[in-house]
Amino acid sequence: MARTATEAATGDSAGPAGEPDTGPAQISGPAQDPGPEQLSGPEATSGPEATSGPELISGGHLVAKALKAEGIDTIFTLCGGHIIDIYDGCVDEGIAVIDVRHEQVAAHAADAYARVTGKPGCAVVTAGPGTTDAVTGVANAFRAESPMLLIGGQGALSQHKMGSLQDLPHVDMMTPITKFAATVPSTARIADLVSMAFREAYNGAPGPSFLEIPRDVLDASVPVDQARIPEAGRYRASTRNAGDPQSIERLAGLLVHAKKPVVLFGSQVWTTRATDSAVELVRTLNIPAYMNGAGRGTLPPGDPHHFQLSRRYAFDNADVIVIVGTPFDFRMGYGRRLSAKATVVQIDLDYRTVGKNRDIDLGIVGDADLVLSAVTRSVTGDTGAVARKPWLEELQAVEEKARTKRLPQLHSDATPIHPYRLVHEINEFLTEDSIYIGDGGDIVTFSGQVVQPKSPGHWMDPGPLGTLGVGVPFVLATKLARPDKEVVALFGDGAFSLTGWDFETLVRYNLPFVGIVGNNSSMNQIRYGQAQKYGVARERIGNTLGDVRYDEFARMLGGYGEEVRDPKDIAPALQRARESGLPSLINVWVDPDAYAPGTMNQTMYK
Prior knowledge:
The protein is of the alpha/beta class. Helix 1 packs across helix 2 (84-93) and helix 11 (275-285) runs parallel beside helix 13 (368-378). The termini are far apart. The model is unreliable at 1-50 (pLDDT under 50). Residues 439-588 form the Thiamine pyrophosphate enzyme TPP-binding domain.
């Protein structure tokens, strides 16, 4: 029987965009019942009621108190003997314990929870394979600049280097993909180390931290007055940096005098909740804006400053280019896609990112919200907005030409279904409250050109690590954090297969969403590259999947499933999935010989 998500967890933290956080459901199943006795470790007494001595607290309860101080109201986990005292503490602190089927899912869900709520996410996994299973999720959060804490179990300190169960050098493995990784040396230091991990997670651009807690350290109890338990709001300073004032003034001047300026809003615009400041800047100065990553949705579709299909033309012809909160990585051609003649400005939370891979004319290290609002306030007199009208009209003409060229594919009635038709139908299906999640290679590349979220924070993809398998855990975290929102997820069939068994978790917790599998029975992004490099005779080596009926898989697990082979049936199937009130999968058979332009232009094969 499904567990329902109806009882709000405690906590008063703000949700996205400063709205009161609706909070995740307070969910607990039989596995989280602490039972009649206090769980305790080898150093604990039978509890404070059995002795007249000092009040004691266990390591797991110290973890829970530290998480509560940070505003965390949900942890994602897969159980293990090394970590169960944390569950007991979470029950007492009113923190929801969400149990999944794979530790990678737990880590991805913690990443997503941070993105959706603006608070750090937390995953708790056992030692050894439990922690190594979570590595991919932590690495994804690292590249995506997502603040989360992974807590891993570890063998007892008393058995250090003796070959205890599931003993591995977790800290050594996690150090390269986290902002902070450490072992907790004593029970009294547990909450202190948790707080330290959160501080480091917000040092510069945010990212993940890792703590391993040896079993005897976690299970032991210590007198409360010997444990340092940092007080909420008093152990971590604000990390908001408004940028260098002289650089702010200089940027304002550059934009006022620019004839063909352009701005790209990246993921840090959402991370810093800079939507209002970003919109004010482009409207005040009449500047065309492009968006990538979590920055999508900063401007709604149809806004006169929202551009999507003319980015390459704009970067080739602009005189001032402002890149906000996105690195010069492969998505930007390592900076080479920006005109050498343009004045280039980069704004980023991380000093190390500014000017990396490409020289810039002006770099500003700071919080996008504060920097952009400061730039707008610095503009006085004539903003030059009227003079830039021809530039926006020029870009609109390029957009319209690209849109017209693509229309036949968007409305194609061909079978197998053209991927452009599928993503067009999904885009038409989205509402103001639909959070869109993309999990896949070629099929999600198609969607990136067509699907336009209608609100800020309503687009989610893995980020620059390009991790497949984020979809189901992202759905899980998003529906828990924002049960008021509809979640629509597009999967490649290969991507869904990686973490798809946690569809059962969505059923178990009664978390409805509309899922679509673009099924071509292939890892098509790789297949295209192999065909180009080795010829069509060898294009099917190591990338071909079975013809799986994912709709039947969904029904088997208690969800809603439907198969679509005719393009005219896509929209009705999506609507039936929405009305089902269940986790759903619409299995859409798409043309395996249709490739996204982004796939065909990728540089890894050239």
